[in-house]
Amino acid sequence: MLSIGPAAADELEPGILLDLKQTSHFTDLNKKKIDIVSDDADEGERVVLGATRHKSPVKIVIQKAPPMGPAATGGGSMAGINGKPKLGDDRQLSDAPEVEVETLSASELKFDTSTMKPVSAWAVTPTTASLAWETPNEATKSEVYLNGKFFQYVSRGKFSTNNLTPLTDYTFTVVTPVDIGGSGEESRKTFTLRTLSKDGQAVTPMTYQAYGTAFQYKTFIPPARVNASMCNYADSRYTFGGDNRGFRSPPINAPYDSPDYRTMMWANVNWQNPDGEKLVLAKNVGKSVTYKNNQVVATSYASTSNMLFQNGQSAGSYAQVRFKHDASNPHCKLWDVNYGGSISYSVIVRFYRSGLVEVVGNRQQAPAHEGWARFNTTAGTEQWLNVFQLGNTGFHCLVGLCGTQTINYARSY
Fold first, then answer.
1. How far is the CA of 58 from the CAs of 34, 127, 146, 187, 367, in angstroms?
2. Could you tell me the pLDDT band of residue 234, with boundaries at 50, 70 and 90?
3. Are strands 2-3 and 158-162 parallel, antiparallel or unpaired?
4. Of the candidates 341, 88, 357, which has an alpha carbon nearest to the alpha carbon of residue 219?
5. How many percent of the chain have pLDDT more than 90?
6. Which of 146-150, 176-180, 210-214 has the highest mean pLDDT?
7. Closest Cα to residue 342, out of 332, 356, 328?
8. How far is it, in rounded angstroms, from Cα 354 to Cα 411?
9. Residue among 400, 320, 325, 406 at smallest CA distance from 360
């Protein structure tokens, strides 16, 4: 039990004991029973409201997801934009493509929810906050940051703190190794939790919930120009045009903004559509330009045929889609054979209606990759938040010389 502030220990209410392996009943950290007031039994994101033995209100949220392995298949036809490319469909394009858009209904996204299991949980009272998350094993140590500052090391994927201020937002970031082999790769999950009012009235589950949640994944080349000799017979007079920018938030008209990227994939979940357009998908590519002695010698566009949306699934307050991306430089092909490597990544994007977006997968470490989540709420707010910013290790990584990099990030508003 941790304390923030000067209150005496005997005045502090304990946090909630969270265990991803046991979600049938709940206690506080002193093993005193939580009295349940309501339980929405949602298939994807369960919200439980209750009261402690001190009569303080409690809100517990348990987030579930399907398995990541071979069983994570199906979930609607995902036709058209998801379809496997035919031989020859990945040839370069001479004209600028339009943003490709497809919508999927809730009925197309149905799947067997019996495979889902808890992957994270959080709980708040007026003065406490608690978290639980997946770890490689119980001995794994995680770093916990509070409002951007290091707070504590914890193990077993559990954390709780008390002596918080009612009706206040606290941002907790949990950094955890993703394996026990010492690779140095880690997951980074950020939760913004609001403590409850102390007047005895628990916050209702639908208050300020999102009616739309979007995620955009862009790849881009930060410099204005980069060396293109590797695709032009080692001739150093050749350069490629880059995007001449750093990491930055998407504009208000995303995904229809002017391309400032190599590639873009985008998904939006409409939570309040009972069927209709539940999941909206979009993708596009930017212009590829080759220069020789600073003069344009070739302009074209990569094909989007190997930028696929897969594993679309939705149940209750949960939705997901896989971004499967392999896009090559159209100016690094010889007779339509790609020899310059591909911008490659594969991630599952998990959406939770309470306001959490989780991205899990891997990428080739070039060029720069960025992920942003957008939250539209019933309170009338709209906000983009960064999920990850991954730099360009080197273009030799496009042919697999660097190995893959794990992507395991979560962000809530």
1. 8, 10, 21, 28, 45
2. confident
3. parallel
4. 341
5. 67
6. 146-150
7. 328
8. 11
9. 406
What's the token pair of residue 186? 């880690």
What span, in angstroms and rounded, lies between the C-alpha atoms of 396 and 42? Answer: 46
Q: Which of 50, 405, 366, 16 has the alpha carbon at shortest distance from 226?
A: 366
**CB within 8 Å of 357: residues ≥ 6 apart:** 213, 215, 349, 350, 351, 373, 387, 410, 411, 412
Residue 176: how many CB atoms within 10 A of its CB? 20
Residues 121-146: pLDDT tens digits?
A: 999 999 999 999 999 888 899 999 99
> Three-state SS string across the chain, please?
CEECCCCCHHHCCCCEECCCCCCCCCEECCCCECEEEEECCCCCEEEEEEECCCCCEEEEEEEEECCCCCCCCCCCCCCHHHCCCCCCCCCCECCCCCCEEEEECCHHHCCCHHHCEEEEEEEECCCCEEEEECCCCCCCEEEEEECCEEEEEEECCEEEEECCCCCCEEEEEEEEECCCCCCCCEEEEEEEEECCCCCCCCCCCCCCCEEEEEEEEEEECCCCEEECHHHCCCCCCEEEECCCCCCCCCCCCCCCCCCCCCEEEEEEEECCCCCCCCEEEEEEECEEEEEECCEEEEEEECCCCCEEEEEEEEECCEEEEEEEEEEECHHHEECCEECCCEEEEEEEEEEECCCEEEEEEEEECCCEEEEEEEEEECCCCEEEEEEEEECCCCHHHHHCCCCEEEEEEEEEC
Tell me: pLDDT of 219 over 70.
Answer: yes
| pLDDT tens, position by position, 239-270 | 999 999 999 999 999 999 999 999 999 999 99
For the segment 383-403, the average pLDDT, to the nearest whole number, is 91
Question: Which tokens is 368 given?
Answer: 């720069």
Q: pTM of the prediction? A: 0.89
Please, are residues 140 and 176 in contact by the beta-carbon 8 Å criterion? yes
pLDDT tens, 336-391?
556 678 899 999 999 999 889 999 999 999 999 999 999 987 677 788 999 999 99
